[in-house]
Amino acid sequence: QADGNMFEFYRKGEWLTKNRVGYGWNVGSTDYKNSTAIHNITPAHNYDYRNINWTRGSQWNYVNDGDGQILAKTFADNYIYLLGDATGLYNSTYEGATDVAHASRSIIWLKPDFIVVYDRAVSKSPNQFKRFWLNLPANASISGRVAAMTTEKGQQLFVSSLLPATSTMAVEAAETLGSEPADADLIKYRIKVEATNNPLSARFLHVLQGADAGASADAAALVQSISGNSYDGAAINGKLVMFPKDIGSFTGLTYDAPAGTYAHYVAGLSPNTNYTVAFSLVDGKTRVAISPGGSITSDSGGVLVFTHD
Is the pTM of this model over 0.85? Predict the structure, then answer.
């Protein structure tokens, strides 16, 4: 199934989000696997499962250009980080459909209740849609850029959409799809975030929060680099996660952390490498400057973790 870079969220005995399980080309497509759909050019054989893959912007079944790759990973006591490159899964040389220039996902789980996920979607030719999908066991409401769902047992899932800045966010019922979904599968709804006007390149940034009944969502704020490497990030509950806009070598980074931030997770650096982190106060925010060399060491996945008062 077309499930490269898929993730799920299980909390206190319930799925807050998971992939839709079943046997068939529609239910097996990327839009039902909590991943990003990226439209391609028309395949050479535009029928059967290949038409379904193409129509949905799915990764290709059987005829893709190679497995997805885990480029970096960290399994720490209080967080898990992964970087996955799925570009080959979205292209098919056999079908003559190789218009996806790049498709990757950076994701960090701040245990136990927050997941920050960042998707890079780039096409070679214009006017190809790009969509972030998240499948749900119950209906959700949207207020501004935040979706809220309550499970059967009363737990809550909050989903904040921070990027793209110009995009639409909607909740829709999962399709019936005949006999394709598995019996008793939980998925009944899904969230779709679509980049407006089908840009050549898009970045999706989302924060998921699991919470008990009656709890309120923590506000998630977009943070972007002001110099050095281009980064996008999310600040929530006193923690700030920063991801590189493009995968590549790190030369330096400066950004402003919102007031109340005390813990930083900066991905995209070289593994097990020393860096310098400098702080200054600018307009009520903490300006953070990171440069190579120093006394703070990144982890085995290239994430630099540090705190400040």
Answer: yes
CB 105 within 8 A of CB 56: no
**Spatial strand order in the sheet of 156-163:** 69-75, 79-85, 100-110, 114-123, 201-211, 156-163, 146-150, 140-143
Closest Cα to residue 269, out of 72, 43, 98?
A: 72
| 8 A C-beta contact, residue 173 and residue 192 | no
Q: How far is CA 225 from CA 131, 197, 231, 243, 287, in A?
A: 24, 25, 5, 10, 10
Best CA proximity match to 306, nearest among 270, 267, 280: 267
How far, in Å, CA of 210 to CA of 160, rounded?
12
pLDDT in tens, 248-295: 999 999 999 999 999 999 999 999 999 999 999 999 899 999 999 999
d(CA 246, CA 56): 25
The CB density around residue 198, as the number of other CB atoms within 10 Å, is 14
Burial of 295 (0-12, 13-18, 19+ CB in 10 A): exposed
| CA separation for the pair 87, 120 (Å, rounded) | 10
Render pLDDT for 218-229 as a digit per residue (tens, 0 to 9): 999 999 999 999
